[in-house]
UniProtKB/TrEMBL annotation:
It comes from the Eukaryota. GO terms for biological process: methylation. Belongs to the methyltransferase superfamily. One of its GO terms (cellular component) is plastoglobule. CDD domains: AdoMet_MTases. GO terms for molecular function: S-adenosylmethionine-dependent methyltransferase activity. Gene3D superfamilies: Vaccinia Virus protein VP39. It is found in: Plastid, Chloroplast, Plastoglobule. This is Methyltransferase type 11 domain-containing protein. InterPro entries: Methyltransf_11 (IPR013216), SAM-dependent_MTases_sf (IPR029063). Keywords: Chloroplast, Methyltransferase, Plastid, Transferase, Transit peptide. Residues 180-280 form the Methyltransferase type domain. The keyword Ligase does not apply.
């Protein structure tokens, strides 16, 4: 399917033909649960979404510019828009610009770059090993060709099963938009898109090479009917390029332990989630090892300092992390070292003060 590519500072983004910048920047999302039947109806006709009186929830058809400058968190506007011939030979030169600080974000042939340092020529900064590892071209190439499959030794049930488990936590926000944070090669981004349960899927990663792999896999995906709902972008998990309260759900598969500062990341996720929005994540948990390695708590400080990754030693630690960042209703499922957790942005903040 022909696709248009737009690039920005956050992460690679694919914009299929027919998805204009106005569509990208002004995305419809439901403030409350949107039934799948209504979503299908909306795709058939963009005029309005109607639900039967028996439905016990309200669908709000609100348009909101959800992409934001990662520096000042104000709205981005399209500066230049050039249509592309196809996904194989996309045109570059499309720009987004912050309405407040005037910072501009441009595109390349595969993705948007919406990071703070986007467009810099001379500036560089050292990154933790956990970040640099996945920016490696070989690791990015191997990730979906054997690397991710090895997680099954730690109790991960596999992407398809994990997707079905995550869908249970996300059932109250079906029909809205979803961020697939640290999307890697796009395993879950494609599953979310193919399910047709979400209006938009934002596939974010800091690794340019992971995003290129994600782009290639999306091009090859024959079962994805509507590719225009997927946006690829380079982004920093600690500076998400979205307006506050604009996102219905955030998913992070096998990523939480790779983030240099999980608290900064989850705080950002909490900021962009709307009231009632859902955060779902999977990671490794090493609580069983504490009984056999008494000094593990002290050792992990050294490991984390060197690698930049995080070692979680208890469910309570993860619950405390979510609660400290303003999320409630923590729940989780375990299988060996594998844990899937979910927490929600409160709908009434006053009751949680």
């Amino acid at each position: 399917m022909p696709m248009t590519v737009v690039s920005s500072r956050l992460s690679p983004a694919i914009l299929p033909t027919g998805l204009s910048f106005s569509r990208l920047l002004s995305v419809k999302y439901a403030a409350q649960r949107l039934p799948v039947s209504a979503l299908i109806s909306a795709r058939a006709s963009s005029a309005s979404v109607e639900t039967k009186s028996s439905v016990d929830y309200v669908v709000e058809k609100e348009k909101k510019n959800i992409l934001a400058c990662p520096i000042c968190y104000n709205s981005l506007a399209a500066l230049i828009s050039q249509p592309h011939e196809s996904a194989e030979s996309p045109a570059s030169g499309t720009h987004l610009q912050c309405k407040t600080c005037n910072k501009s974000y441009s595109a390349n042939e595969t993705h948007l770059d919406l990071t703070v340092a986007s467009g810099t020529k001379q500036y560089t900064e050292p990154l933790p090993l956990s970040i640099e590892l996945y920016r490696n071209p070989l690791v990015s190439f191997l990730y979906e060709r054997g690397w991710r499959q090895n997680f099954m030794w730690g109790g991960f049930p596999g992407p398809e099963k994990e997707f079905e488990m995550a869908k249970e936590y996300l059932k109250h926000v079906l029909g809205g938009n979803i961020i697939d944070a640290s999307c890697g090669s796009g395993i879950f981004s494609r599953l979310f898109a193919k399910s047709e349960h979400f209006a938009m899927v934002y596939a974010l990663d800091y690794s340019e090479n992971m995003l290129r792999q994600c782009y290639e896999f999306l091009k090859q995906e024959a079962n994805l009917i509507d590719k225009k709902i997927v946006v690829l972008a380079r982004a920093d998990i600690a500076r998400l390029p979205f307006l506050s309260g604009s996102v219905d759900a955030v998913h992070a598969g096998a990523a939480l332990h790779c983030w240099p500062s999980p608290s900064s990341a989850v705080a950002e996720i909490s900021r962009v989630l709307r009231p009632g929005g859902v955060f779902v994540a999977t990671t490794f948990i090493y609580d069983g090892l504490v009984r056999f390695v008494p000094f593990l708590k002290e050792l992990r400080q050294e490991v984390m300092g060197y690698s930049g990754s995080h070692m979680f030693l208890s469910e309570r630690e993860l619950e405390d992390l979510c609660k400290s960042c303003g999320l409630v209703g923590f729940t989780c499922v375990r299988n060996g070292l594998f844990i899937m957790l979910s927490a929600t942005k409160p709908t009434d903040m006053l009751t949680h003060l």
